[in-house]
Amino acid sequence: MVVNAPVSGAALLYGVGKGGEVHQGGNGTTAVVLDGGVVRAGTMFGTVFLTDQRMGADSPRTQGLAEHEARHADQWAAFSLVGGPAAFPALYALDEAFFPGAFNHFERQAGLDDGGYDTPSDCPSIAGQLTLVSLGLVAASALVARRRLRGPSPASTGSKDFPARRPDDWCVSGPSTSGQSEAGRSYDRSHATTPLGGCVSG
Asked: Reduced to 3 states, what is the DSSP secondary structure of residue 167?
């Protein structure tokens, strides 16, 4: 597959540099048999399978493993198209952390029997499910606590901010009463009020 070419090329160069035996599969994959340094039965990099297993080319075990690894190659290609070459190994490692071995969803999709896994009785892993649920609860609690600390927004409460009123705005000016006596004007000033309790000038 073209999308797997960079990863496949790097794995092939590594295997040949380590003195591995190269075997071309009939399903577009390549197996490189090494003397050691691999995890489990081997690891798929793009379309290149690095392994330390030496089996007959026509044995049912070899054919099943080849089909299993071909499905991993499809997984590499699909996630590389979406998130780049590092997407699949990152997601695989994350899944492996919570669902190790035969519980891994990528291994299950590739076929546990073909990959040489024993199907567990409690698949998927109860421990992995509980871990994911716990992480979900922690994340939800963190979001709720953050919203409470920030408080409700003005838009959600329907409140509006009004500009502060200056003392001068509370005063009401009345018309000049030049014909009124000084005593009358004094009486008006002392008894006139506004709804806001401000001053009145005459």
From this structure: helix
Q: Read off the pLDDT of each residue in 6-25 and give the average, rounded to a whole number.
A: 93
Number of H helices, E strands in the chain: 7, 6
Collapsing DSSP to helix, strand or coil, 32 comes out as strand
Query: Which of 122, 87, 130 is CA-nearest to residue 106?
Result: 87
Q: How far, in Å, CA of 130 to CA of 99, rounded?
A: 11
**Residues 110-137: pLDDT tens digits?**
999 999 898 887 655 566 666 667 767 7
Three-state DSSP class for residue 58: coil
Backbone φ and ψ of 156, nearest 5°: -75, -30
Q: Please, which pLDDT band fits residue 56 given cuts at 50, 70 and 90?
A: confident
CA distance 176 to 10: 97
Q: How, if at all, do strands 42-45 and 172-173 pair?
A: unpaired
Please enumerate in sequence order all residues whose Cβ is within 8 A of that of 74, keeping only pairs 6 or more positions apart, or say none: none
Bridging pattern class, strands 200-201 and 172-173 = parallel
pTM (two decimals): 0.61
| Residue 49, CA atoms < 13 Å, CB-side half-sphere | 28
